[in-house]
Specification:
Length: 213
Amino acid sequence: MSEMSAEAVLTTTRSVRKRLDLTRPVDLAVVRECLTIALQAPSGSNRQQWQWIVVTDEAQRAAIGDVYRRACHEYLESAGAAGKLFADDPDRSAVQQRVHSSVAALADTMGQVPVLVLPCLRVAGGLPSGNQAGLWGSLLPAAWSYMLAARTRGLGTAWTTLHLSYESEVADILGLPADVHQAALIPTAYYTGTDFKPAPRQPLDEVLHVDRW
């Protein structure tokens, strides 16, 4: 585990898609370490309804990869695809094109990534109608903590949700009970290259509102 400052971990944990090492195995013990850290994240009313599916089996990874590829190609053809956004801003469009390219690359390799992690919620009686922010807010911080912990151990990850268009198919592959709902699909592998740095972002003052809008 590298001795990185908290600020360095928080600002250099990037979505790794093209630079995942598909040939280097990931020891399940390392994934367990990251998940143990993730379980320290806040959970509403301390319910801890989270469930974590870690997929290492080659056939299951390939099957999930097939579903993800189909969903991703549909996304890449849609008007909301990364490469089609901000077309009128040359600087930002260039960044979007790089993101688009990396998304497309992951579509073709997801099934080969050594470890796939699916954070889930187990909710009796089905998901509630209306705003579900409070419900998912008891899982997503833990998933992000997992990704941060992975970063300190030389592992790259990416937050993906495109497969949720076919959530039931992935549930069937994994044999998930009907009351277990997936939040994301996080490919996990050692990465190649070490030049991760903070990403371009809007200036804070363009998005900050103090006291009132």
